[in-house]
Amino acid sequence: MGRGNQTNKSLDAQPRADHRCVCCWMPEIMLGPRVRKSPYYEATVAAGVSAFTIYNHMYMPTSYGDPAEEYRRLTERVALWDVASQRQIEIVGPDAASLTQYLSARNLAGLKSGRARYAPICDHDGYLINDPVLLCLATDRFWLSIADSDLGLWAKAVAAERGADVQVFEPDASPLAIQGPLAEELAIDLFGADVVGQLGFFHHVGVELDGIGLVLCRSGWSKQNGFELFLTDGSRGVELWDTVMAAGARFGIGPGTPNASERIESGLLSFGSDNDSRTDPFEAGLGAWVNLDGEYDFIGKTALLKRVESGIERSLVNVSFADDSLSAASLPLEHPRAVRLDGQVVGELRNAVWSPRLDQAIGIGLVKSSASAPGTRLTVDIDGVECSLVVASEPFGTPRRLFSAT
Amino acid sequence: MGRGNQTNKSLDAQPRADHRCVCCWMPEIMLGPRVRKSPYYEATVAAGVSAFTIYNHMYMPTSYGDPAEEYRRLTERVALWDVASQRQIEIVGPDAASLTQYLSARNLAGLKSGRARYAPICDHDGYLINDPVLLCLATDRFWLSIADSDLGLWAKAVAAERGADVQVFEPDASPLAIQGPLAEELAIDLFGADVVGQLGFFHHVGVELDGIGLVLCRSGWSKQNGFELFLTDGSRGVELWDTVMAAGARFGIGPGTPNASERIESGLLSFGSDNDSRTDPFEAGLGAWVNLDGEYDFIGKTALLKRVESGIERSLVNVSFADDSLSAASLPLEHPRAVRLDGQVVGELRNAVWSPRLDQAIGIGLVKSSASAPGTRLTVDIDGVECSLVVASEPFGTPRRLFSAT
């Protein structure tokens, strides 16, 4: 058939995307086989998911269409999150403990089976490349529960080039989170008071729920309390979702997602959002989880020792908007903007959201240390509106330290 | 202010996503600072982009809302693609050539400055982790123009652990592609007949266009002929887009994206779509670009030698749908499906699209070698419809070899 006879019937039959609207245009996400669907995908569609991002090569829900209700659910009741895209990198074998320590800026001495630690990971230049929670499943078996970068490639390359006697791979392990003040009661209903009562923060244990194998961990990316249920059979995701949703009905459970407003109020780092590609853990406020005085070596240690000696140049700071000039349509921030002190660029506003708790716009800046003192007044241009910012004296949600994690 | 007084005014003011529609619901993509915007982003929005994916941590347009017109533009005239998310990994320094060879399954002997080669990259187990085009900018300076995985982390880890004297980083270099039968004439208008006439396939040269610095390469992810303009100043993306669009008006240029129908017709590999996480380059049909008989070592060589000896177990095959049972609404395929031979699962249908040129549905399968002979009849269940497939005797667009690349 010649080109002139092309009918393109099926392409022409495909729906045209005429959803654009002046006040609320949002582009669609392309669905295709290059990106993985989570084990909970069908359940999230049935629950009314309206937006996704892509995280670790997997679709991750980011909205069910009602931000105010999703925030209330998380902070007043309990929310169910598909966070399967927080993938695990398993390191197992005789050299697993030493390799994991070599990868981690955090001192892992004394880490026991059934416990976890927040473990920032740097490249050889001392820049953050991921900030996983590290679960110790056995003395020779670990899961790095990762943020959005291919840490599996990194760990495999390091292991192979060093000749470490380990296997490095992505296991079938997909977290489903319950987060919120009523998550504890829901967990007790699901797993029993004995199991839940003994589970301290960042403790984890293998359990079964209606025959579905899980690792239950007291953790999650909010400060509202909660648990992550690491499903270890990806074929049973919808079943697990439905079971938890049914048990949570009496607590007012509903679908939700990692919540930008709550996590900025609470001072939790969003790797890749708050930092740029050349941010060290001290700049990112993670100094408390980096151990430069140990006897062991880790990747980036030499570079970080030099950097500490010469002085850390930038700081991650919480900022509040000093006036009401910012329109809600500009929130959450789509991309970083330059911030200025006395007209000079001193860094970036990395994120900004509306805070329901504080009833004002707040954000995260990555600025020169000289502009990071509490009370410093900065400016930022957002969509043509000049806004005033004030560096906060403390994180909004965690009075004693910037990023509270074990 | 107590919780009871929360007004959540700005969250409530945010638009609710009530775009769902029974016949054509597509979720939105969340826009936020974790994912980068391309230098051409604003231009693509102005040009009517309607859908994105995320590729190498950057938004990549996937539709302008009219698939039939976008296909015609690409195959009959010329299309302008924002493919900035095809990022570059630069390797530069005294050990750059030897490190790049160690990373690449392809023999790089004789690769000169101003030339490029398709260079599949494997992990130490011989599985594909990326399939970049490698541009040689100087004898000690290379760009890996990558598919969607953090190959920069991989290359940095290997370089540092081996003590290679190189720098590895992502430079400011963002491809804008012109693809289609009239791309040649457009390129001549933009860069002159002398420059374009001397530029063979996979040749590249540094040029300026209205003072904007570029690397111009005869390349691109289609078989319609064309060029990639590697912009080397990310602040000038919209300017470059507008300049090319204006010059292309007389050729009927318009916006487009990498096109699933055209690339499957043409037999081009889509890394991450066509393969799974344990696919070797022989299974993926890339054997012609893997050199096991050279004297040099490369990552994965030992594993691949063993695998070749024991026999390659799977093959990537082109398939055509043998009947009209598949509805257009199921295309392109959202995720892989099991394919069967005589009722037994023998692999996966990785992709399926409508082919305007062949006027039928076609796809890519990854199946046991025993089920890969031309003419083999397979079945696949797509959304409850049992479809018949036939393994094609040859790729649809490239009669002589599966994946034609230099």
Strand order of the largest sheet of chain A: 13-14-15-12-4-16
Total domains of chain A: 3
Span from first to last CA of chain A? 66 Å
CATH topology of the largest domain in chain A: Gyrase A, domain 2
Radius of gyration of chain A: 22 Å
Helical content of chain A, roughly?
A: 10-25%
The low-confidence runs of chain A, each spanning 5 or more residues with pLDDT under 50, are: 1-9, 12-22, 397-405
Task: Provide a quick synopsis of the model.
2 copies of one chain form a homodimer. With 406 residues, chain A is of the alpha+beta class.
List keywords for this structure.
406 residues, Alpha-Beta Plaits, alpha+beta, Elongation Factor Tu (Ef-tu), domain 3, homodimer, Gyrase A, domain 2, 10 helices, six-stranded mixed sheet, 3 domains
Q: Could you explain how this protein is built, in words?
A:
The structure is a homodimer of 406-residue chains. Chain A is an alpha+beta fold and 406 residues long. Chain A has helices at 9-13, 41-46, 67-76, 96-103, 151-162, 183-191, 193-197, 237-248, 260-266, 301-310, and strands at residues 28-29, 51-55, 58-63, 79-82, 88-92, 115-118, 121-122, 128-130, 133-138, 141-145, 167-169, 174-179, 204-209, 212-217, 226-231, 254-256, 314-321, 337-341, 344-355, 360-368, 377-382, 385-391. In chain A, the strands form five sheets. In chain A, strands 13-14-15-12-4-16 form a six-stranded mixed beta sheet. In chain A, strands 17-20-19-18-21-22 form a six-stranded antiparallel barrel. The termini of chain A are far apart. Chains A and B meet through helix 1, strand 1, strand 2, helix 3 and helix 5 of A and helix 1, strand 1, strand 2, helix 3 and helix 5 of B. Strand 2 of chain A pairs parallel with strand 1 (28-29) of chain B.
